[in-house]
Amino acid sequence: SYFAPLAFYLSNLAMGKKGKKKGGPPPAGVALSIQEEFTYMSLQVETLERELQVKAAHAEEAMRSEMEIRAKVEQMEEDFLAEQSTTFAVTADMARQYKALQEELIWQINSLETQLTNQKEQLDMTNHTLEELIKDKTEDIEGKDKQIQHLNERMNEMSSEFANMLSETLELMRTQIGEKLKDSTEDSEGNRVEFAQRLQDYSQRAYNAVSVNPRAITDRGGKSGGDGA
Fold this sequence. Notes:
By secondary structure, the protein is mainly α.
């Protein structure tokens, strides 16, 4: 240690003083002269100066290291602040883009909902119009069916009345002609038979002509309705 000689010297001085006061025996060893003590003290001063230089160098090195560390810390803080600023800018830009996209999507959703509502209303109106049209057509068809049925019944009645009237008329004519033919001579017998047969054929054709076929009338009515449609 650098302080060992100095400690030894101070210890010798203290023992010398203590021995002088108490009158005891002198300290062990040879006493140093003034020149030797000066030399010894100079060596101690040089030793302390060298130690001071070493400590100053250590202190300077420590200060330089501290300054380097401080510089690194400051650089790291600057980098952190720059990174933080960049992160905030990117985050703000992303937030603006997200908000703009959200507003665009909300507008599109509202527009689609409006279109859907309008289309539903149009569909409801179309369905209502179609139902009304079907109802009107159904009522029209039912009315025409009733008219056809009524006409068929009326025509059947008229046909039956006309057939009865024609039958009565033909029967009356047959009776009158038969009475007239009885007054004829024997030579006209063949003509009388032929005339009676012709009268019978005429009566049958007339009856068939006035007979009404309901299905034929219905078919004609359906064709007329189809042509009108």
